[in-house]
Design brief:
Number of strands: 10
Number of helices: 12
Oligomer: single chain
Structural class: alpha/beta
Order of helices and strands: HEEHHEHEHEHEHEHEHHEHHE
CATH architecture of the largest domain: 3-Layer(aba) Sandwich
Number of domains: 2
Distance between the termini: 42 Å
Length: about 325
């Protein structure tokens, strides 16, 4: 499988134009409680994307490459919630049936949202990897069109469209931050950002209880975690895939870890300062700055991808 590039990202941007939102990007000025260093900070608000997260970009990017026969067989995937919502939205917009497999650690509010978009929801296993194995098996047995949440080149290219917007709005960005689950978001955004601005630094953020890609990068090969210990279920696959590892090894400068409580503190900060309700995973990059898991050089302009809406971070 060849690695997607900037041309693929631009093609994806053309395909999904008018089908997803161009999300706002705001400057994090005028805070009562500034982050350490009081650095210039931009927030790319993918939490305001249709379906509630950046995942709509990748799902719609993939959908727009499918022919009528593939769409007619119905779409299927496994998700911690957000990718499922992106696929459900894509299927709803195209009028095709969608089946979503969820692990048992998915909030039931996500299942309810999926059903609102018309998806059939099935729970299987304890973590995403369990649900995904079942989704793949059902796709093969029933002939449904499977859409991988993070290891599909068209999905990765769709996520990369965020960087086109973010760097257009803040071309002086020195450091780009992104949460890491399976690696689809950071694979696409880091690849596109480095192609647009080779000297930009890209920092990935994982939970201490699910350091899937940090462990894999350190080992120089894919590592499957024996267990997951985080409430940030959308950042919690036990194993990534080769395409994501390759892109991350090539384009990501560093991966840092944050605790669930640090993510919760960061989510409360986003709510208190901006009135933005996010899930734990969307607060991971703010948590890295707030906890000083990563400390930028003085004056560095930082852009953070606030990747998904929710209330588990502030409840």
């Amino acid at each position: 499988m060849s690695l997607p590039n900037l041309d693929d990202v631009r093609a994806a941007a053309d395909r999904i134009a008018g089908l997803v939102r161009r999300t706002p990007q705001i400057s994090a000025k005028f805070c009562r409680d500034a982050l350490p260093g009081n650095l210039p900070l931009n927030l790319k608000l993918e939490c305001l994307q249709v379906s509630g997260s950046f995942k709509a970009r990748g799902a719609m990017s993939k959908l727009t490459t499918l022919n009528d026969e593939a769409k007619g067989r119905g779409l299927i995937t496994a998700s911690g919630g957000n990718h499922g919502l992106g696929v459900a939205y894509a299927g709803y917009s195209a009028g095709v049936p969608v089946t979503i497999y969820l692990p048992g650690n998915t909030p039931h509010s996500k299942a309810d949202q999926l059903r609102r978009w018309g998806a059939e929801v099935r729970f299987h296993g304890d973590v995403w990897d369990d649900a995904n194995r079942e989704a793949v098996a059902v796709a093969e047995s029933d002939g449904k069109t499977y859409i991988h949440p993070f290891a599909d080149p068209d999905v990765i290219a769709g996520q990369g469209t965020i960087s086109l917007e973010a760097l257009n709005d803040a071309p002086n960005t020195d450091i780009l931050f992104a949460s890491i689950g399976g690696g689809g978001l950071i694979s696409g955004t880091a690849m596109a950002a480095k192609a647009l601005k080779p000297d930009i630094k890209v920092i990935g953020v994982e939970p201490t209880g699910a350091p899937t890609l940090r462990e894999s990068v350190a080992a120089g090969e894919l590592v499957e975690l024996p267990a997951i210990h985080t409430e940030a279920n959308t950042l919690a696959p036990r194993r990534s895939e080769e395409i994501n590892l390759a892109l991350i090894q090539k384009n990501v400068d560093e991966i840092v870890l944050v605790t669930d409580e640090q993510m919760r503190d960061a989510a409360r900060w986003l709510w208190r300062e901006f009135g933005i309700g996010v899930e734990l995973s969307a607060a991971a990059s703010i948590a890295a700055l707030q906890s000083e898991a990563f400390s930028p050089d003085g004056g560095a302009v930082c852009t953070v991808l606030v990747c998904g809406a929710g209330k588990d971070g502030i409840s």
